[in-house]
Amino acid sequence: MTPEDFAALLTPEGRALLDSLRDYDPGQELAVATRLRREHPAPLVSAALGQARLRQRAVAKFGAEDAFRMYFTPGGGEMATRASVASYRAGRLAALGVRSVADLCCGIGGDALALARLGIRVLAVDLDPLTVAVARANAEALGLADLIEVREADVTQVDVSSYEAVFIDPARRGGRGRIFDPESYSPPLSWAVETARGAKHAAIKIAPGIPHEAVPAEAEAEWISDHGDVKEAVLWFGTAPGTVRATLLPGPRELLTADPLPDPQAGPVGRYLYEPDGAVIRAHLVAEVAARLDGRLIDPTIAYVTADELRPTPYATAYEITDVLPFGLKKLKALLRERGVGILTVKKRGSAIEPEELRKKVKPQGPNAATVFLTRVGGAPSMLIGSPADRPADRPAARPAG
After folding, report:
1. How many beta carbons lie within 10 A of that of residue 350, not counting itself?
2. How far are the Cα atoms of 184, 291, 315 from residue 283, in angstroms, in the given order?
3. Max alpha carbon distance in the chain (Å)?
4. Whole-angstrom Cα distance, residue 170 to residue 184?
5. For the whole prediction, is pTM greater than 0.70?
6. Residue 187 — pLDDT band, cuts 50, 70, 90?
7. H or E stretch covering 209
8. Which residues contact 115 (CB under 8 A, 6 or more apart)?
9. What does the pLDDT look like over 314-329, one tens digit per residue?
10. How many CB atoms lie within 10 A of CB 157?
11. What SS3 state is found at 302?
């Protein structure tokens, strides 16, 4: 889609055409396109169909009410911050008293919209002309244009000194996919950090896999998950230097420390297995969760916590374990057949076996459900069998099996 194609979508004809495609079935696109081209220019129809598909995909990230009013680019929709995460981050900035933010590398404007909805004035900057046009259209579509100035510029050349905070979202994708080296971000992380150091408050959105040793000493490092899926990491400046935080949405539920605990001891598998939230694992706060559970690791290298009692925690999902087996497909297949397990959830950590590969080999059948963990216990490849511990069950503790 060119800027000219996008501009056509903003005309009365383009808006009406796009609105008519809200519920269209992409599987019928050829027939729909043929019908629409009898009444509208072919380039406009193509642009509208493409935008309709992007809006449908964006519902999961932005919600239907906003997604069907917003505009997207193919890459911009994928890279944009999920609305729940953007709203949380905007809330943190608002709580700091921030009333103006320079949003650098703004993309389609997801973060700028969340900030403006809290009454914060935003300068949204991006270099790509089409992306800038989309961000501007989104501010207008959601009635926030009075608070959002969208500017086409190189972010490294923008004066942000008059803004109370800076938010930077460097591009982490290139022509070959994800970029893992922070210095290969666009702009590089080093530039973002230097810019953040010059602001009263700043936040830099980064990939959640960033090494902890790459976090500047004066920054707070936060890992954020939404409904259990790790979405991003953020480096905060002007908040709590040296603090490590895991934030779980919805909530938020926050686990933070400035002095992380040492790794807990490893020991035998107890009655309950706890799978820490991904943000907790990325933040290296598994020890803090284990301490709250009076638990231990099942292996020094595996982020599963085990305990003999069930204790509620928002930071991990609990499973009641009935069997601890050395790894063996024949043994697992026989056990599942004996118990009539046809609904099998497979989780892995420290195992080379892929869940789908295991399902094909054991061929679960029956009315019952179970969860199998492919992992290591005390260094040995193992299988743990159990089920979610929504409530205590009157069953014996996990039993090792030879």
Report:
1. 18
2. 23, 16, 12
3. 72
4. 10
5. yes
6. very high
7. none
8. 90, 93, 101, 103, 122, 167
9. 999 999 999 999 999 9
10. 8
11. coil
